[in-house]
Write a structure and sequence with these properties.
It contains four helices and no strands. The protein has about 100 residues and is mainly α. The protein folds into two domains: about 40 residues, Arc Repressor Mutant, CATH 1.10.1220; about 45 residues, no CATH class. It is elongated and about 70 Å long. The two termini are about 40 Å apart.
Length: about 100
């Protein structure tokens, strides 16, 4: 059986980022080398970075970020849209999403 050739990757990274990422990897039981190997393999499979490298134009608000007034307004708007039948059929939405993934 032939020996597998390996190569080293040396990088400099912010210490805080390293600590935070490695704490997560430890929680899920994934060694750092395996995570880096998986990332490199995904780069090959995708022919580039396997995720979007964009700056979001606006943060999607979450319940924790809203005041009670903002949350109530959002819920009232949604209820009004539902009552006015200003919505899309769920099956049609998922069919459209799935067709977009196939192209």
């Amino acid at each position: 059986m032939a020996a597998t050739k390996t190569a080293s990757v040396n990088v400099r990274i912010d210490q805080t980022i390293k600590i935070q990422a490695e704490a997560i990897l430890e929680k899920i039981g994934l060694p750092r080398a395996v995570a880096i190997d998986a990332f490199y393999r995904q780069i090959i499979i995708h022919g580039g970075i396997p995720f979007s490298l964009t700056i979001p134009s606006a943060k999607t608000p979450s319940y924790d970020d809203m005041s009670e007034k903002e949350f109530n307004h959002m819920m009232e708007t949604g209820l009004a849209q539902a009552k006015a039948d200003d919505s899309f059929d769920m099956d049609e939405v998922f069919d459209e999403l799935e067709s977009g993934l196939k192209t």
